Structure formats: structure tokens, C-alpha cells
């Protein structure tokens, strides 16, 4: 997690008088003792981890009290990913790794259910929920997406790719606007449809 994100969260704690504290630690090795929490949430996390989030889910299980509840999620439908992949395959060198290559596996509820069960959770139920998100102005949104992709890629950006910057942004914009269900709203913003898998599991009360 970015240091600035933690600073923003800490400021919100103070400004809004939340009964909360923030800690920055490895999700695979939490410093909390066993049986600490009644609830534990992994939001937009397990599907980006190298071990399918199993280590993190095991730590969630360890730190939950008996009978405690864990919630984790994964994307079933991510509308911007096809746009990002189109820009990647068109403007980056052949063989450049695509972002979130595992997304097809994670789109199925059984994937999330299986990993949570493997971590020790019982009575795991996974539901799919549709949600609509309105982005900022389309060009700005496409620029943010592509900046994130290049900034987190394991393959360095070449001079030729820098020259293809505007082309890549244009591809992302066009693909986003052609996404199923996409709607352009006031201020050239986009309304996009996402579908999320939400898994809920319990640590054995015994």
C-alpha cells in the first residue's frame, strides 16, 4: 500500500472521529496475536497475490476468534481489462505480460470459495453482485489506467512505447466506450458495469 494512502486514511480517522487505527504490515505475516478479531476483510486483495492469497487468508483465519467471519472478494467482470489488454498487445513488445493474467480463473465463484476453504474457513458462501461505477472524464480515466499499467509492469517502457503513448490512450478510450453496457454521461464520464464475487466464511467456533 502506498504511504500516501495510509496518510490519507489516518487523516480521515482524525477528521471523522473514526474508532480506528492503521497498521502497515505484510498480509502474509500479521503481527496480531491469535484469536483477535470478530471480522476480517480482504478487499480487492487475494487475487493479486502470488499464492492466490492463501497465505493472507490463513493469517485472517489465525487472527479471527472462533466463530469469526472473513470476507474476501474477486472480480467476475472487470470492464477496463479488455481495453488495457488491447492497448498492451497493440503498442507494447510481443510477449509483454498482460496485467492480471489470472483474472479468468478468479472470475468463477468456485475459485474464491476453494481458496477460502483451503485456508480453513467453513460454510463458505460466494455470491455475485453487480455494481455500476461512474469514472472521471474518459481521457483522464484512460490516462490513469495506462499510467498504472506502465508503472507497475515488470517490463520497462521503451522509447518507442513512449512515442505510442497517445495511441495507447486512444485505444483504451475506444474500447471502454464499446464495453457492453457502457454509457457516456455528463462531462464525458463513463458509467461502467462491474460484477464482483463476494465470499463469506467462518472460522470454526470450536
What can you tell me about this protein's structure?
- By secondary structure, this protein is α+β, with helices and mostly antiparallel strands.
- It has one domain (32-202): Rossmann fold (3-Layer(aba) Sandwich).
- The chain contains eight helices and five strands, in the order αβαβαααβαααββ.
- It has helices at residues 3-15, 54-63, 79-91, 103-106, 109-118, 138-152, 159-163, 165-177; strands at residues 37-42, 64-77, 122-137, 183-185, 189-202.
- Strands 1, 2, 3, 4 and 5 form a five-stranded mixed β-sheet that branches.
- α2 links the parallel β1 and β2 (64-77).
- The radius of gyration is 19 Å and the shape is globular.
- The mean pLDDT is 92.
Main attributes?
single chain, 206 residues, alpha+beta, Rossmann fold, globular
Topology:
Elements lengths: L2 H13 L21 E6 L11 H10 E14 L1 H13 L11 H4 L2 H10 L3 E16 H15 L6 H5 L1 H13 L5 E3 L3 E14 L4
Parallel strand pairs: 1-2
Antiparallel strand pairs: 2-5, 3-5, 4-5
Helix pairs in contact: 3-8, 6-8
Distance between the termini: 34 Å
CATH architecture verdict = 3-Layer(aba) Sandwich
* Protein structure class: alpha+beta
Number of helices: 8
Low-pLDDT ranges: none
Amino acid at each position: 500500500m502506498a504511504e500516501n494512502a495510509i496518510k490519507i486514511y489516518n487523516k480521515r480517522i482524525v477528521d471523522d472521529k473514526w474508532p480506528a487505527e492503521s497498521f502497515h504490515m505484510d498480509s502474509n505475516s500479521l503481527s496480531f496475536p491469535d484469536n483477535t478479531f470478530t471480522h476480517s476483510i480482504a478487499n480487492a486483495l487475494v487475487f493479486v497475490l502470488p499464492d492466490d492469497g492463501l497465505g493472507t487468508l490463513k493469517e485472517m483465519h489465525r487472527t479471527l476468534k472462533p466463530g469469526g467471519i472473513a470476507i474476501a472478494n474477486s472480480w467476475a467482470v472487470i470492464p477496463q481489462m479488455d481495453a488495457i489488454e488491447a492497448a498492451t498487445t497493440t503498442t507494447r513488445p510481443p510477449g509483454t505480460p498482460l496485467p492480471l493474467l489470472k483474472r479468468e480463473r478468479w472470475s468463477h465463484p468456485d475459485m474464491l470459495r476453494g481458496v477460502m476453504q483451503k485456508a480453513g474457513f467453513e460454510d463458505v458462501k460466494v455470491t455475485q453482485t453487480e455494481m455500476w461505477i461512474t469514472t472521471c472524464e474518459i481521457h483522464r480515466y484512460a490516462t490513469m489506467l495506462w499510467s498504472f499499467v506502465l508503472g507497475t509492469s515488470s517490463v520497462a517502457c521503451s522509447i518507442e512505447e513512449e512515442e505510442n503513448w497517445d495511441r495507447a490512450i486512444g485505444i483504451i478510450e475506444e474500447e471502454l466506450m464499446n464495453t457492453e453496457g457502457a454509457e457516456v454521461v455528463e462531462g464525458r464520464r463513463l458509467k461502467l458495469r462491474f460484477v464482483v464475487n463476494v465470499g463469506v466464511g467462518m472460522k470454526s467456533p470450536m
